[in-house]
Amino acid sequence: MTNYNENLPLNQQLNLPFHYLDYKVNYEGHAYIGVQNIVNRLNDVLGMFNWTHKAVQVDIDQERHSVSVFGRLEIWDADNQRWISREQYGDDTMTIKKGESEPDAQAAENAKKSAMSDSLKKCAAWFGVGSDLFAGKVTVLRPNSTAFGKVASNYGLDTSYRFKYGIPVLPDSYRSYYSEMNWNGIFEADVAALMSGKTPKGNSEQESTQQPPKSNTGSNNSTPPAQGQGNSTPQKFRLRAESGLTVNQDGTSVFEAQLENQSIVKVFIPKDLLTKAKAMIKKGGIFQLDGWYNEKAGTIRLGKRANIVRESAHQSA
Question: Which of 65, 70, 78, 276 could form a disulfide with 57 if both were Cys (CB 3.0 to 4.6 A apart)?
Fold first, then answer.
């Protein structure tokens, strides 16, 4: 669900916080936002026809096996009827397969794509998109820290994959926006509370007065158990897609949805269901599906054989 205040300056609209699960940590321990999230933000705020990014220059260094792209991002300034541009370099290194001494042709093409994405992210940051990341406002708990173990245990985080390299920690200044969007996140004050032996206060100062999300299995007062907390049976949900489907490089996919209790969640789909999901998941569609709900993380994960049913126009009316 998009919530961009048009009264805000454009750079502030572009730099509004992302969903917590959009913040990832690379193997070096730095927080980052994926390029698809950058593209989505530009499309949502500017409109898909009001920006463009292209390569001005591409340099390939075969000796160092590196690729550099000098890219230009242009956005349309409607007030002054002109295009405004920002330029930045992006780079990447070609992957050499095991047992080989030189990268193959596909490795060079992959490096070009990655360098182009890197250029886009850096150019977009100059316009405001994700600039808080470059300013260091989103910090990271590294796996070798005491806080990492406490936070992972308290929130039931998957440290073998999703949070393998670290846990993103949001600045407390994001809390009011997350509360407005009904999102879950891990904030600086939450970590400080855990380390001092106190209970984290959650999304907002008012969270203790909010009713917990209701199960869609017929019970009126229970919350589906979070994945990884002893629940082996998936729960049934009815929800509306608030975004289109984003396909990841590993074939898995994800979309944002709103449950019947108005909660916003990220729905993660395994690669086994990719073909079905691509054909069915459209923004605004109403769906019934079964999966594991993690309330703290704000996610629903589907199994390999999960059932996804799209309601007809008559049903969803």
Answer: 70
Are 310 and 287 spatial neighbours (Cβ–Cβ below 8 Å)? yes
Contact partners, residue 91, CB within 8 Å, separation at least 6: 66, 67, 68, 69, 115, 118
CA distances in angstroms from 286 to 142, 283, 291, 304, 314, listed in the order given: 39, 9, 16, 21, 11
Beta bridge partners, 258, equal 240, 264
Cα separation, 77 vs 80, whole angstroms:
6
For 67, residues 6+ apart whose C-beta sits below 8 A from its C-beta are: 58, 59, 60, 61, 91, 92, 93, 94, 108, 111, 112, 114, 115
Q: Give the predicted TM-score (pTM) of the model.
A: 0.63
For residue range 250-271, what is the model confidence (pLDDT) as tens digits? 788 999 998 877 778 899 999 8
In terms of C-beta density within 10 A (0-12 exposed, 13-18 middle, 19 or more buried), how is residue 98 classed?
exposed
Structural domains of the chain sorted by starting position, each given as residue range(s) with its CATH number in brackets: 10-134 (3.30.390.80), 139-205 (no CATH), 235-316 (2.40.50.140)
Radius of gyration for the chain, computed over Cα atoms and rounded to the nearest angstrom: 21
Per-residue pLDDT, 215: 32
Distance (Å, whole) CA 154 – CA 196? 14
